[in-house]
Amino acid sequence: MQRRLLVIGNGMSSLRLLEELVALAPGRFDVTVVGAEASPAYNRVLLSPLLAGELAAADVELRPAAWYAENGITLRTGQPVVALDPVGRNAQLRDGQRLAFDVCVLATGSEPILLPLPGSHLAGVTTFRSHDDIATMRAAAATGLPAVVVGGGLLGIEAAYGLARTGAKVTLVHLMDRLMERQLDAEAARLLKRAMEAKGIRVLLRSSTRAILGGRRVRAVELADGRILPAALVVMAVGVKPSIRLAASAGLTTGRGIVVDDKLATSADGVYALGECAEHRSQCYGLIEPAYEQARVLARHLAGRRDRYEGSLLATSLKVSGVPVFSIGDFEGAGGEAVLFEDREAGIYRKLVLRGDRLCGAVLIGDTGEAVWYRELVRQQVSVAAIRGALAFGKAYAEAA
User: Fold this and answer.
1) What pLDDT is stored for residue 314 in this prediction?
2) Alpha-carbon distance 288 to 327, whole Å?
């Protein structure tokens, strides 16, 4: 007899879990997946090119609705779960319907942080997280009036780039002294800032937002130093936080995220969590690769195979505002030795951090063709003493040397 599996959340990590289960244990579960958004899972990483018009909505769709049906999965979209009863083993949807389960997986993801600034409630203030946000941003950009993006992390940069590509006049405001300070060192961030400015984006660093001004709609942003930035659109892109309200209200153990063990099990029997909502060994991951690793482990566990999640090595590999960027491990290099390669004219920069004869971190910008090789050197922690002099020039050169 099939066990009833309820997956709450239909994002990228949820879909990867379903794909793994279809491959490992077809027919083992009677699966229902419930998503709060109206559309099936899509690639959030591609929201910026979608906003820019470089991609169509179909291009960011991961699996069509028909795929779920073909694999015996019941898909419910536009119906968030409002209550979870882990003892009675059921979940209540917004429309009042209750779904019974034997096993439940929470893949509720994360939610954008909205700064509690004066005026943050005004029309024209949005976040950058979903299809709905894209629609709001496109409508505002069509007016031809300026836009302000608050936050110089990955989301903020992607929002600014997407808006600039629509033709909007964009100012990016960031509190810190460099862009993407969690993923880039100072020099890589400088090169990224230069690339963004070349695309017409004004970048203001060390700048704090005091208030959003307007009546019913946004008309300007006031900075802490008194500067006023005219704006018809304000995009809050200051980060995300794990979505744990459902789990907390159900009595599950939570910290920053939903606390899970090495099997991705929560404190409630038969209830698991993965992805951005999960907290494993006091760590919440905001990147997709750890979520995919968790999905593989959990699928194997649910399929009856032994596997454990030991944590993930943080790495960022993507194209930011059209510029390839990669970082992994301890790229700041405190207590280590840095090997540098830079071609300022071409906008290429590599920083490799060594401790002894082991590579412990790397940051690349402009050319990330060797990212996979560097990633494996960091993960495997093999000696690079024999190729140290050629390390900055890539795998082929190092092997030849």
Assistant:
1) 82
2) 14
| CATH number for the domain formed by residue range(s) 3-111+240-302 | 3.50.50.60
- CA-to-CA distance for 89 and 81, rounded, in angstroms? 13
Residue 127 forms beta bridges with which residues?
A: 236
Collapsing DSSP to helix, strand or coil, 91 comes out as strand
Identify the CA nearest to 101 among candidates 295, 272, 307.
272
Q: Is 374 left (phi over 0), alpha (psi -120 to 50) or beta?
A: alpha
What are 119-168's pLDDT values in tens digits?
999 999 999 999 999 999 998 888 888 999 999 998 999 999 999 999 99
**Token pair recorded at residue 45:** 């990483």
Helices (H), 250-394: 288-302, 371-380
Question: What is the C-alpha separation between 139 and 188, in angstroms, rounded?
Answer: 33
Q: Are the C-beta atoms of residues 290 and 305 closer than 8 Å to each other?
A: no
**Residue owning tokens 């109206």:** 38
Q: Which pTM value belongs to this model?
A: 0.90
Q: What integer pLDDT is reported at residue 334 of this predicted model?
A: 76
- Which residues neighbour 144 within 8 Å (Cβ) at sequence distance 6 or greater? 167, 168
pLDDT of res. 61: 95
**How far apart, in whole angstroms, are the C-alpha atoms of residue 51 and residue 158?**
9
- Give me the residue spans of the domains in the chain: 3-111+240-302, 125-236, 322-400
Give the β-pairing of 271-273 and 202-204.
Answer: unpaired
Task: Decide the pairing of beta strands 98-100 and 228-230.
Answer: unpaired
In terms of C-beta density within 10 A (0-12 exposed, 13-18 middle, 19 or more buried), how is residue 400 classed?
exposed
CB-CB contact of 137 with 126 (8 Å): yes
Give me the pLDDT at residue 313, please: 85
What is the per-residue pLDDT for 321?
67
- Residue 8: its pLDDT value, please? 98
- At the fourth CATH level, the homologous superfamily of domain 125-236 is FAD/NAD(P)-binding domain (3.50.50.60)
**Which CATH class for the 322-400 domain?**
alpha beta
β-pair type (81-85, 90-93): antiparallel
What is d(CA 241, CA 257) in angstroms, rounded to the nearest whole number? 8
- Other CB atoms within a 10 A radius of the CB of residue 66 amount to 10
Confidence of residue 286 (pLDDT cuts 50, 70, 90): confident
Whether 320 has a pLDDT exceeding 80, the answer reads no
